[in-house]
Amino acid sequence: MGRDVEEVAAALVREYLSRKGLKKTIACMDEELPRTNSSINNRSELCRTLHLESLYKKNKCEVQPLKTMLEIMTKERMKKVGDGKRRLVEGDQKEEKSPNHGFDSASADDVRREKDPAELHTDEMRVSETSTVSSPPQLDGNFNITSPTAGLGLEQKGRGVEGQESRGSRMRRGIMAGPIAASSQENTRRRPARKTTASPALLPKNEEEDSVGLNWRSRSCSTDVSHTESDKQDITPSIRQSGQGERTDRTPRLRAHKNESLPSTRPDALHMAGLVLDDLDDQEVSSGIAAVPDNNFSQHPDWNKQPMNQKTATALKEIIFGSPVACFSEEWRCQSFTFSNRPALRYGIVQKKGGPCGVLAAVQAAVLQKLLFEGTSSDALSERLSDAVRTKCLTDAVAGILWRAADRKNVTVAINSGRSHFTPMGHYRSDGILEMITCVEVQSFDDLKLLIDQHIHQFESGPFGCVLLIVSAVLSRTIPMVKEDMDVPTSTLIGAHGYCTQELVNLLLCGRAVSNVFDNEMKLDSGNGNFTLLKGIRERCDIGMLSLFEHYNICKVGSYLKNPRFPIWVVCSESHFSVLFSPCEDLTSSRRSPREFDLHYYDGLANQQEPIRLTVYSNSVVKTADNEDMDSDLTPPLELCIRTRWTDASVSWNESEPIL
Predict the structure, then answer these.
(1) pLDDT-based confidence at 301, cuts 50/70/90?
(2) Which sign does the torsion angle of CA 158, 164, 165, 170 carry?
(3) What is the CA radius of gyration of the chain?
(4) Are 562 and 422 found together in one domain?
(5) pTM higher than the cut 0.85
(6) Largest Cα–Cα distance of the chain, in whole Å?
(7) What are phi and psi of 57, to 5 degrees?
(8) What is the pLDDT of residue 24?
(9) What is the CA angle 286-287-292, rounded to 5?
């Protein structure tokens, strides 16, 4: 049936909040009910979907046009209901004025059903004064007259002027009763409301009118339910004005505040003050009514939540790109941490396009650490790896990366709120990502894991998952500390052609955005007693790194990265990052490497179809001149990277096609 009703309704509410300037409210709504790809974010599209073009144009011509579509629809609905009520009133008056002398017992019963209990009691009093019957008329439990003579007198009075005046008076007071009988099933389906003086125009269509006028649905199905004390004070004055002492027998669904005025004497008048709807009670929830989801942030008052501002967004762009006018490319915008559906590669994260490979490799290595050495599942590398297990490992991996970057204290997590928090001004170019971020700060690792778990879909399947992780890592480390980590403060995290720099990879691997991969620090004599301090890795890491640049003597990878706590390495080869790992933890826990062991290789960008298992034979090859020639021409770069860690190692690809 076209667009989903919930999406259109949500768009209608968002348009109302936006036009009214309720920024905090709409931000909370976007957190509780995030926007999707099918959400309507354009006012013109919403107008076309609701077929409000004519009303929208008509509203513009008004002296005081309404601002929102919700108000336009409400006004039109109120107008239609008001016209319908006036037509019903006029029709009832014509019927009462038209002569009809052929009443029988059935028509008398109809008259009695149209009248409310209070009026029946009035007619009873009048009949008792004029009737010649010795026994007075009686009222049964449903306020129906049981005396035939009294019924005849009631018919005569119903045709008289006094009956018309009484009916009009009750209509003006707004206390016209609905049908006497109502099924218990119907009342069960109704949702209770309280404290309102609103007109029936706000009620659903089936609760607006009945065959004799306004149907307030103000009474329950049982005739023995009495009013509360507040209801007595609200309704009794109207009854006393007509000289009645009887109470209505049904509990009002819509009630007025004690200190507020009664409905206006005009039938179509609308009082909006004090309109409050009850929350769902436990009984309704247990009956299958869905409760509104809780706000995840509001449950944790210690979490500091702040929307992104232009000052912070500008500083982020300067540290990431080097300029506030630069933006994330499509390769970065579309990248998230989505797992492969290949049966034998379900542990692997798929890279869509080139560019973010350094971030993908670091997260992939952290996920493998959780799967292989910190998880309870034995299906880490099998087809039986479940979606729930790998998503949990991704949650723990992201939490560990950010906790390390924050130096195990206050962590800031970037969450996509779905709406812009500021209007870019000056020397800043909008990219549609940073402007929509809400920054949530947590103090403990347990809170961090809970927060990531609640929003893991944004990292795993959201359109900006990779960007959110970068921003979270930088804000957790803090921008001044990231600059201090670098050898040159003007360095960036994303370099030429949109590739990750070594600073960004190191930030995710070891928690510091240092520019080098050697151990500790290195001093370079600049002459005249000046030294340049180059910063490297300060301690042994959980995950290591191997680089092809070391083979060409461009850089030196230190022992902290070559010998990590877990046998997992991020491999930098040919300007691309991938992962090499072993399921055998003893490979790095012992000082000596075994003579023969297996390494698994995964590259998320290579459209890998099957696992690649390499068998490494350490210290078993006697190099010759021919072999040296093969190294420069035919040896796969991955083998050269392996030999920077295991010198003179021989590698078997086990019938897999070597990656050249």
Answers:
(1) low
(2) positive
(3) 38
(4) no
(5) no
(6) 136
(7) -70, -40
(8) 78
(9) 65
Alpha-carbon distance of 440 to 413, in angstroms, equals 5
Residue 303 has what DSSP assignment? S
Q: Residue 82: its pLDDT value, please?
A: 75
Residue 403 and residue 134: Cα distance in Å, rounded?
Answer: 93
**For residue range 148-167, what is the model confidence (pLDDT) as tens digits?**
444 444 444 444 444 555 44
Asked if residue 326 is part of any domain, the answer here is: yes
199 occurs within a structural domain: no
In the predicted model, is pLDDT for residue 312 greater than 60? yes
Residue ranges of alpha helices (H) inside 98-228 are 105-114, 117-130, 148-159, 161-173, 184-189
Which is higher by pLDDT, 550 or 115? 550
Verify that 342 and 486 share a domain, yes or no. Answer: yes
What percentage of the chain has pLDDT greater than the value 90? 44
User: Domain tally for the chain?
Assistant: 3
- Residues of the domain holding 572: 516-660
Q: Which of 587, 594, 646 is nearest to 621 (CA)?
A: 646
Domain boundary (77, 97, 117) is at 97
Mean pLDDT within 505-513? 97
What would the mean pLDDT of 221-246 be, rounded to a whole number? 43
With a CB cutoff of 8 Å and minimum separation 6, the contacts of 323 are 317
Whether the CB-CB separation of 295 and 28 falls below 8 Å is answered with: yes
One domain, residues 336 and 448: yes
* Whole-angstrom distance, CA of residue 54 vs CA of residue 525: 78
Q: For residue 302, which phi and psi values (nearest 5 degrees)?
A: -75, -15
Both structure tokens of 78? 């109120």
Of 465, 498, 531, the residue that ends a domain is 498
How are beta strands 213-214 and 209-210 bridged, if at all?
antiparallel
As given in the structure block, the two tokens for residue 660 are 């050249």
The one-letter amino acid code at 559 reads S
Indicate the pLDDT class of residue 489, thresholds 50, 70 and 90: confident
pLDDT of 644 over the 90 cut: yes
Q: Show the CA angle centred on residue 327, arms to residues 324 and 331, nearest 5°.
A: 155
CA dihedral of 260, 262, 264, 265, whole degrees rounded to 10: -150
Per-residue exposure over 65-91, b if at least 16 CB sit within 10 Å of its own CB, e if not = ebebbbebeeeeeeeebbeebeebbee
Give 399's pLDDT tier (boundaries 50, 70, 90).
very high
Neighbouring C-beta atoms of residue 319, cutoff 10 Å: 22
Question: CA angle 430-436-439, nearest 5°?
Answer: 125
The amino acid at 152: L
Q: What burial class does residue 482 get, using C-beta atoms within 10 Å of its C-beta: 0-12 exposed, 13-18 middle, 19+ buried?
A: buried
- For residue 544, list its beta bridge partners: 569
Phi, psi at 483, each rounded to 5°:
-65, -35
Query: What are the φ/ψ torsions at residue 193 (nearest 5 degrees)?
Result: -130, 165
Lookup: tokens for 468: 């959110």
- Which residues have a catalytic role annotated? 357, 576
- Please check whether residues 306 and 434 belong to one and the same domain: yes
Determine how many CB atoms are found less than 10 A away from the CB of residue 593: 16
What mean pLDDT comes out for the span 438-460?
96
